[in-house]
Amino acid sequence: METHSPPQIRTAISTSYAELSDTLRIAADYIAENQVEIATRSLRSVASASGVSPASYTRLARALGFSDYEALREQARSELNKREQDSFQDKARRLRTDADQPLLPRQVAACIANISGLLEDVGQELLDTVVDRLDSSRKIVLIGALASAGFTDYFAYLAKWFDDRWLVAGRNGTTLGSTLAGVGPEDTVLIISKHPYAHRSVRAAAVAAGNGATVVVLTDSHTFPGLQYADFHFIQRTESPHFFSSYAATLVLIETITGMLVARAGSGADARIQEVDKHNRLLDEFENV
Q1: Could you say which DSSP state residue 144 is in?
Q2: How buried is 190 (Cβ within 10 angstroms: 0-12 exposed, 13-18 middle, 19+ buried)?
Q3: How far is CA 18 from the centre of its chain?
Q4: CA 22 → CA 11, 19, 223, 238, distances in Å?
Q5: What's the whole-number average pLDDT of the chain?
Q6: How far is CA 51 from the centre of its chain?
Q7: b/e per residue, 123-148, with b = 16+ CB within 10 A?
Q8: Which helix (H) or strand (E) holds 219?
């Protein structure tokens, strides 16, 4: 008989959040932000602390795909055991402690698990909807800070080969504010942000939404504060034996989105890629071998 592993709690919340009632959203927010409490305290204590009835937590558990609240609680315990609530310093210390164990197999295994998780975490219908929106936008503004900044640059590098509507905000002498001042309902703002979350990314999501732009977020958790401003979002797993979060799944998602956009662009993309390649060679961008 086929068995199914329980869903990741934050992934389940993210997937179902739009369909939840206001009361169940309050309970879901509490669970996402207080997983230690969920794993270690009784349902009565959790209900008292959050101001939401025990019956609401039972309904929420079922709405998220668990058989009952106790099954959700067991999943919270399992996830906490797996993560071990590591800080950056703790993970760095473990790297030194485990220096005699080969790191490459552990890193490869973590990245493979993160990438494989995309098949479970990213629905094809949502992916198609977001790609359609990007394809029809007047312009696409990419925003990333801290470690995410380099990945917005890579996203723009790929996209600009076949499409000149893409730009990275707050880079190359332009301010974040000057770029966002020009966005509106015809535009899409795509934000990449992983823990620890950069304040400017959260504020950018708020400003973009306030201007009427479509906001798409690539992040690692339902708890990203800017998610409240997003029209669409994708959550990627980032587990790693390193002291930092892995972006392996995010890279695969970026490359998938750009590949889908090329397929939609048709022969126009071919002509643009050929033109870009010609100018790169004229400007000696490539090493001739």
Answers
A1: E
A2: buried
A3: 17
A4: 19, 9, 17, 29
A5: 83
A6: 29
A7: eeeebeebbebbeebebbbbbbbebb
A8: strand 214-219
pLDDT at 85: 45
**Cα 79 from Cα 39, distance rounded (Å):** 9
CA distance 158 to 105: 29
The answer to whether residues 147 and 245 touch, using CB atoms and an 8 Å cutoff, is: yes
Residue type, 131: V
Band of pLDDT at residue 276, cut at 50, 70 and 90: low
Residue with tokens 């892995």: 246
Q: What sign for the dihedral angle of Cα 250, 256, 260, 262?
A: positive
**Calpha distance 217→17 (Å, rounded):** 15
* DSSP symbol at 195: S
Question: Residue 245 in contact with residue 194, Cβ under 8 Å?
Answer: yes
Give DSSP secondary structure letters for 32-61: HH-HHHHHHS-HHHHHHHHT--HHHHHHHH
Residues 6 or more apart whose Cβ sits within 8 Å of residue 283: none
Query: Distance between CA atoms of 130 and 216, rounded to whole angstroms?
Result: 8
Residue type for position 21: S
172 Rama class: left (phi>0) / alpha (psi -120 to 50) / beta: left
Name the region of 146 (left: φ>0; alpha: ψ -120 to 50; beta: rest): left
- For the question of whether the overall pTM of this predicted structure is more than 0.90, the answer is no
The per-residue pLDDT for 270 is 57
Confidence band (pLDDT; 50, 70, 90) for 211?
Answer: very high
Strand order of the β-sheet with 188-193 is 166-168, 140-144, 188-193, 214-219, 232-235
Residue 149, CA atoms < 13 Å, CB-side half-sphere: 10
